[in-house]
Predict the structure.
Amino acid sequence: MPPSFESRAATTQNLREEVTDNHRLYCCPASLDQCPAQGYAVLDDVLCPSTADALRAEIVALKDSHRLHKNSTHLVQDGKTQLLEKEHILEAELTLDTAIQEAAPLCADLAADRTLAIMLSLLAPQLSLGSQAAKLQYNCGGGGCFPLHFDSDESLDARKVTAIFYLNPGWTADQGGALRLFPFPAQQVDILPAHNRLVLFSTARMLHRVMPSQAEGRVCITVWLTHNRSNVSHPQGHPGGPSGTTTHCNSPLQLECHLTLPTLRDWAVWNNLHRSLGHRPLAHHGSEGSSAPDAESSVQLLMAPHVRKHACKYVYRDEWAASLRESHPPSEARDAALEKHWQEFLGWKDQDFRGLIYHVIASAVPQLEK
């Protein structure tokens, strides 16, 4: 017999209390010390066991009642969008679908809870987290996985933090399905999707993928926490910017403007770019007018957010292509995605922006590998 409205409401209220209490536990500064150094955090036992079990049960019930749909990668080329269905990955948009919210009230309550955003904003005020959105996911096994990707583009999207709640009792490494993070230039790390585990990382700056799952029933809830744009401070010369102040801007939009200058190979432009990132002037070890910075300066430039994203795609280009093949069945759309992937690297030595990336990687990566 299904639970009554009153019992379901009471269970939901219990979840709210548990979520609030446990968020206070896992959002304490000590539990997030790993974030600045590693770029991610792994937190276990974030909810009481009965709550984690109930959340999983709701998602499994949605799958069994055929309420989930296939996940797809959106490929945009020549102004047209093609959908690449992923094999064995089912999902539901929790935030936008009221029917799903009604069918999974505990998941909806977790997704709507603001405690995590509030605590992260207190610990890291620059995040200033506002709204949030959530998605439910069920992996049917059979090699179901995700290709390498960033969750968002910060020049277009205000999402800042990805929070993934894993709900998989007894999950073992031989079942696959690990979350693989690429905290470049550090080595990649595989994280088991263990039951009652929360993983936090940067939505726009952490390259990641999901490894093929050999077992059915890999379940998770992903919550994206969004930057509150109303609290953004503007640099000097922009609306709202204070007068008489000096601002070092790490905006990817401003960085991209610098990178597309036709005089990019000129040494003075390298220095101006570095100063705009808040770095010291580049050390010059070549002949006058040379465009070759030293290795340390190359590494600094390589870590600039927008440059780093392109560097990641270059460094992991082979695994990126392999992950596209693993995540999608053979199709013309998949072939087009792979062709687009490899086309990005043609002529990198000759183009201004991409030539810069190639040039920086060539001098920086040997040092990073030491």
User: Anything to note?
Assistant: The first helix runs from residue 5 to 26. The CA atoms of residues 67 and 99 lie 9 Å apart. The mean pLDDT is 74. The chain is about 40% helix and 20% strand.
